[in-house]
Amino acid sequence: MKNKLKKLAGQKVLYFMIVPCMIYTFIFSYYPLSGWIMAFQKYKPAKGYAGSEFVGFDQFTFLFTDSEFWKAMRNTLAMSLMNLFFGTVLAIIFALLLNELRMQGFKKFTQTASYLPHFLSWIIVTSLVADMLASDGMVNQLLMGLGLTSSPILFLGDAKYFWWVATFANVWKETGWNSIIYIAAIAGIDPTMYEAAELDGAGRFKKMWHVTIPGIKSTIVVLLIMNLGWILNTSFEVPYLLGTGMLQDVSQTIDIFVLKYGMSIGNYSLATAAGIFKSVISLILVFGTNAFANRLGESSLM
């Protein structure tokens, strides 16, 4: 016990440094959870929590029988899974290819240029995407110029293209930024592993396949666990900014559903119930993926 107290005393400066972060987290992450009580009420802002009528699980019952909510759930999962798959795969491929560049000046330029889209606001990104995919935009002009189509394709007017457009916008904006941690993980691989593979006759591709990828496997697993926890929270800006009334069936996500019922219609109770459902599913995904990674003997968060 004395050793523990002595250790704590020796790290008191670190604990004092943590206090502001703990206060911030409590105020903005834990204290607002008291508002979840609205999901079990017929909440009226004028009456507050105490004066609003308790209705038990009525909001959840309505939510789970509402076809619009399940469409939003489908759209959220579809776009989030597409973003997760293509975003992860392309970020890994980009990091691997960047690591193989031998011209340091060109490598640094490419790396820096790939980060820049991350710092653009979604307003700018979606405006660029909309201009590119317009009927008289660059993409349609190129397709017609190459003879691949005789008339402009309505990328933003046809539901079958919307998920792909949203995925393209996310991947273009975030691939470079997402590759940073993979590049850092690659830099931490023991150089003697490459030397040993080279002595065994491995070329650049085989070294990449048998040394680099296994060397960053634990990083991939940890990031996958973290990203799965956010899988229901990654589809708001692009669907909201690019989605139109005619595309509502494929563009409305859970976040847009919550915004619609909470702010536009004023049904705060139903919006809160949808938010709770999303949080619970995210928590289950994190713990489930973490347990699966433990069973496979891979690195995990807990």
TrEMBL record:
InterPro entries: MetI-like, MetI-like_sf. PROSITE patterns: ABC_TM1. Its main location: membrane. It is found in: Cell membrane; Membrane. PANTHER family: POLYGALACTURONAN_RHAMNOGALACTURONAN TRANSPORT SYSTEM PERMEASE PROTEIN YTEP, PROTEIN LPLB. GO terms for cellular component: plasma membrane. The chain crosses the membrane at residues 12-33, 77-98, 119-139, 209-232, 268-293. It comes from the Bacteria. GO terms for biological process: transmembrane transport. Keywords: Membrane, Transmembrane, Transmembrane helix, Transport. Belongs to the binding-protein-dependent transport system permease family. SUPFAM superfamilies: MetI-like. It holds the Pfam family BPD_transp_1. This is Sugar ABC transporter permease. Residues 73-289 form the ABC transmembrane type-1 domain. It comes from Candidatus Caccousia avicola. The keyword Transcription regulation does not apply.
